[in-house]
Sequence to fold (172 residues):
Amino acid sequence: MINRQLFSSSKLLLALLLSAVSLASTPALAQDLGIEVGAQAPVVTVQSLDGKPINLGAYIGKTPMLIEFWATWCPNCKELMPALLDAEKKFGTKVKFVALAVAINQSPERVRRWLVANPMPHETFYDLDGKAAGAFDAPATSYVVVLDKTGRVVYTGLGGKQDLEAALKKAL
Fold:
């Protein structure tokens, strides 16, 4: 009887472990993590790459907006870049694109050097103290938040493979 219960418990534990491993290896899906879709975007202050304070409230609620939490060292950000640039080419006159460089393993100077070598059409700001990442509940780099023109979150996504065009259409 004890051996049967032990065997049954072991099978259950193994099934739970396999499920956890399966979920952990599945790419993150849009709207699974971070700030809730439908929430009003928080207004936070970040800084320009030359150290001046930038209030994101100057942009939020004025026009649809795409915000990417990004890092120079992030492989998912690099993978997402072509889709981001294509979306910006297509929607750049209707949507404000902003990259927020996180302050993990990089400095404003490192970000500036990276941008000199890899010019981007959108503005890039620096989240020095992590307040923006905290306010948007950013789970990692390559985290994208799309806001409609009222400042409401219409999409969140994580990873190098996101359908940014479909996300932006929700904001328009």
Notes: The chain has one domain: 29-171. The chain has five helices and seven strands. The radius of gyration is 19 Å.
